From TrEMBL:
GO cellular-component term (any): mitochondrion
UniProt cross-references to SUPFAM superfamilies, sorted A to Z: Isocitrate/Isopropylmalate dehydrogenase-like (SSF53659)
UniProt KW keywords: Magnesium, Manganese, Metal-binding, Oxidoreductase, Tricarboxylic acid cycle
Single annotated GO MF: metal ion binding
Required cofactor names: Mn(2+); Mg(2+)
Protein's name according to its UniProt entry: Uncharacterized protein
GO biological process, one term: isocitrate metabolic process
Amino acid sequence: MLGSVRSAAARKAFHSSRWFSAKRLVAPPMTYIAGEEMSWYTMKIIREKWVEPFVDTSKWEFYDLSCKARDESEDKVLRDAVASGGKIGAIFKEPTITPSADQVKEFGLKKAWGSPNGAMRRGWNGITISRDTIHIPGIKLGFERPVFFERHAIGGEYGAGWKSVGKGRV
């Protein structure tokens, strides 16, 4: 009950403030690249509950870069997203999956599509991508448990090696 009172009070204060306008803000053009798994689901909720009620996103171009969409379109969706990002110059990208051999079977894909990030860097003249690790032996791929680390891919670092350094501490 107290939570709903706080929420109602916060909404009233926000809507009566000089910062709120009854009109929705109009967002500038942007290429929005949807990803997969929990990041896709989380961003869907954020867009539906906290963005779209207040911001007109009609100028955004949306692209689904899930493994299934890339497989069904023979990667045309990736080429279209890269072209859109190059044209518009403003891009938001959710994390995507570069499927492993196991995931190709699990998702029923025609083949293991390569990482979309290299095509994006080439198409957009270089970008930095922050993402979580690709694979740790003994841990099933996907979002089943929290991930507490990340690595950065810059330039052509896909050939860079990695090694297990043991357990860490928080």
